[in-house]
Description:
Layout: H1 7-21, E1 37-42, E2 47-55, E3 59-64, E4 71-74, E5 78-83, E6 110-115, E7 120-125, E8 129-130, E9 139-144, E10 148-150, E11 153-156, E12 161-170, E13 180-190, E14 193-196, E15 202-205, H2 210-253, E16 261-262, E17 267-271, E18 276-281
Antiparallel strand pairs: 1-2, 1-5, 2-3, 3-4, 6-18, 7-9, 7-17, 8-16, 9-12, 10-11, 12-13, 13-14, 13-15
Amino acid sequence: xxxxxxxxxxxxxxxxxxxxxxxxxxxxxxxxxxxxxxxxxxxxxxxxxxxxxxxxxxxxxxxxxxxxxxxxxxxxxxxxxxxxxxxxxxxxxxxxxxxxxxxxxxxxxxxxxxxxxxxxxxxxxxxxxxxxxxxxxxxxxxxxxxxxxxxxxxxxxxxxxxxxxxxxxxxxxxxxxxxxxxxxxxxxxxxxxxxxxxxxxxxxxxxxxxxxxxxxxxxxxxxxxxxxxxxxxxxxxxxxxxxxxxxxxxxxxxxxxxxxxxxxxxxxxxxxxxxxxxxxxxxx
Length: 284
């Protein structure tokens, strides 16, 4: 009794026979993962080195190390495929566990220092001040000519800025009144931080001119008396003196006294009226 093979069975035998007859070259490539660095040696002795992109039933796709387009190498031309030994990459260190110890507060590298009241500040003006050009409420600026030391610590280095205001600017009068200018400081800048301060007022007044005024009046009066004597004796001398004295007075009335001018760079001293606390580096 003959047995007949069913069509599915016949098809299976044909596939197996075909696979056996056409065994794929370079079977080692089938065990390699895409991305593996390989060297594909061809049967003609040449080779292709690069990254394995894909393994097809009939070909290998390689991304060449020397650049260029991907190369599709037919399996029938492949003699062997060798994986290159990858350079060992050390594992990334595990992140350090969060510390449970209390962390130092921000700004721990600094400390506070209090500059006491009555401290004398040696200051150099950066803004010119004058009785005839400044006005009350004008803002001015200066800088410390010397550092401010508190118990050996430098509380404010030389060059620290001081900001202030003109409190009075008075021109000299034609008859009376000396020129004067006054100012005080309200801000000290240390380490980029503004600190409110209160200082004594620096006031400068022009010197008096009474003696010079007397000379201006007396000299023309004497000249007038001489001229009067020549014109008419004693009576003429008295009249001439009056005329000369009047002329001298006119000179004084039309001439202003000296002005007060403190140019930029002028050195002054000023005293703190209240303490001020500043923050400095801990190692200062």
